[in-house]
Amino acid sequence: MFSALVMTAAMRGAARAAWRRARRGPTLPSWPWSEELFVGAFRGALYAGVRELELMSPRPKRRHATKTVRRGSLVVEDVLLDGVAATRFTPQGQLAGTILYLHGGGFITGSVATERRPASDQALSTRCETYSIEYRLAPRHPFPAALDDSTDAYRALLAEGADPNTTIFFGGSAGACLALATLLRARDMGLPMPAGAVLLWPYVDFTFSGASIKANAEIDMLPLRDLASVLGSAYVGDADPTDPLLSPIFADLTGLPPLLIIAGGAESLLSCAERLADNARSVGVETQFTVYPEQIHGWMILPKLPATIAATNEIQAWMTRRVGQ
To answer: 72 in helix, strand or coil?
Structure first.
């Protein structure tokens, strides 16, 4: 839960963005009003939020209670995966596979609830049983707590009979980092690799060394040039930021399954995504990498953007190929 100060800062940020748009036109030629206001609001909230980071610490641990709800053609259930709380989205009819869904939020915020819509959309569009997990968050639980939870969840899925050949890891931003780190740990533990991983706007370098961190600092909704020292240290804690399981940009990616990497041309983490794609290809990992011009970090939260529609179609086609539909 954010404080009234953070909410006020978000509204002021949106108001400033509206004023600039009215006076000067769009920040980038393709931006509609919705993207302009989203960037302004999010930047305002982030700058205010880092001053009271404890407000962004984990929600109280969710008490697990078996609960089943039918929403249209989906059955939604709260479950446990080796002690990790999760929500399972099950489409009606024959299932094509399994998705391990890892929400974003910089490892300091976010939850199953905040990404319920995209998780359920993935379940429906791919006909995959989808598990979205409540991994532990920093600063109360720094690295490797989240990775421990995601690894336990994957092992539990395998133990329950999920076929790795039709299982996909899916994550955006910090969730993409966690998906990639879970692949690396699973490989090193000798666990079977899933069929692939979807990595949206990957947040996989906690040294924040990419050129786009500075180049896109005034445009992106995630101004890491100014906030990396606070946001990054909350998750890193006492660990080495170059640890490959913390910053998979430094990992040897040999032996990983196919990857779909998607980034925005105006985001701070563009360089990170480019380097990750290069690293994967250099060791023979099948990699599909797409940059959507002039798009910010996390732009797919805006469902009517042409880039969101195009990326959604790309993701669905890629995942359908991976699970063999």
So the answer is: coil
